[in-house]
Write a structure and sequence with these properties.
- By secondary structure, the chain is mainly beta.
- It is built from three helices and eleven strands.
- Strands 1, 2, 3, 4, 5, 6, 7, 8 and 11 form a nine-stranded antiparallel sheet that branches.
- The longest helix is centred in the middle third of the chain and has 14 residues.
- Bound molecules: N-oxalylglycine and manganese (II) ion (MN).
Length: about 180
């Protein structure tokens, strides 16, 4: 299993700075009724959100996404072209699910923007155990192999967001998620 989140993977707090954070999602073109074959299987898991997919990005965003890909995916790994952008309200949350194995490969890499949050991973075969990861605002997390296939992942509601006994206040949160293709 390979889990990584801030600060374990990078030894420093953040993957993008505040200026870049603004630039990444600066001009969101949220579709009114977004409907996508890729994500429809896990959409009932998500509450209080809007989302889009984007293939073309600005220069700054592209350079951030290149860095994400460089750390998250092995060289030459076939990637899912469009990048998924998910905007959760303050009250929004994501229930436990596993991303579709039909459309998405071994690795999921997500940048968390605008708000800290807590991601919970629960083994599919032992729901009394779990691992919580603090996803700091502007950090990158990577779910790979067993963490991606054998654990459900979820983003906790504001009222359930605690890490090491400390409240993690949830505000509106945008995530930018890169995935590779199944092989
Ligand atoms: C998803 C998902 C996590 C995140 O869209 O399938 O799990 O970081 N998103 O927003
Ligand atoms: Mn997911």
């Amino acid at each position: 299993m390979w889990l990584s989140s801030n600060p374990m993977s990078f030894g420093r707090g953040y993957f993008v700075g505040t200026t870049k954070e603004r630039e990444v999602f600066g001009k969101p073109a949220w579709k009114q009724s977004f409907c996508c074959r890729l994500w429809s299987s896990c959409r009932p898991a998500i509450h209080g959100y809007r989302e889009t997919e984007r293939l073309q990005w600005g220069v700054t965003s592209e350079s951030i996404l290149r860095r994400v890909r460089a750390v998250a995916f092995p060289e030459g790994s076939p990637l899912l072209g469009p990048i998924h952008v998910l905007d959760l309200d303050k009250e929004g949350y994501i229930k436990p699910h596993i991303d579709s194995v039909k459309f998405c490969g071994s690795t999921i890499a997500g940048l968390s923007l605008l708000s800290d949050s807590v991601m919970r991973l629960v083994p599919e075969n032992k729901s009394t155990d779990w691992v919580d990861m603090l996803l700091s605002r502007r950090s990158l997390y990577i779910l790979r192999d067993d963490a991606r296939f054998k654990f459900t992942h979820e983003i906790l509601k504001d009222e359930e967001s605690f890490f090491s006994g400390q409240k993690v206040a949830r505000h509106r949160r945008i995530s930018v998620i890169c995935r590779n293709l199944p092989v």
